[in-house]
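Z., the sequence and structure:
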Amino acid sequence: MGRAVVVGLVTLSLAVPASAQQQRVDPTWLSFETAAKTVRFQLIAGLTGLNGALNFNGFRDGALTIVVPVGWQTEIDFRNHDGMLPHSAQVIAPQTPLPTQPVGPAIPRAFTFKLVEGLPSEATDIMRFAAQPAGEYLIFCGVPGHGAAGMWIRLRVSATATTPALLLTPAPGAS
């Protein structure tokens, strides 16, 4: 049986503010193999100038959600594209207010090296972990102040999803 790579996308139009409508989800960011229950996501820090480059894949403040079925082996390939600032990433539990520095990871091994210091421009790291337990999480920059300034997207570990997907996420209160 050949290896199948499938990408799931949902684009919301009316419920997403105009600024988010300009953002694009690149289907090459997400690949998976259903039979092996493995998923790979390309996480790119500072991809665009949005929010002073404090963004992941051009999204800020949770405007992008990665959905992964519970129990799947997950690989997040992190790259710092920002030419000016260091960045890092970790999976944390949602919290209010957002932390201003790294906190303990919500999923074991779901963090990059140098959480506080951050990785320099074009540096890479790979997070490998089992997506469990089911729940809502944040992929958050641990460099002090970055995550609290909006450098985070969402991770949903789903007990009902059968394949991974990338979803545009409307901001709270968006109409």
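Strands lie at 9-10, 30-33, 38-45, 64-69, 73-80, 90-92, 124-130, 135-140, 152-158, 165-168. The CA atoms of residues 80 and 123 lie 6 Å apart.

Let me know what you think.
H.
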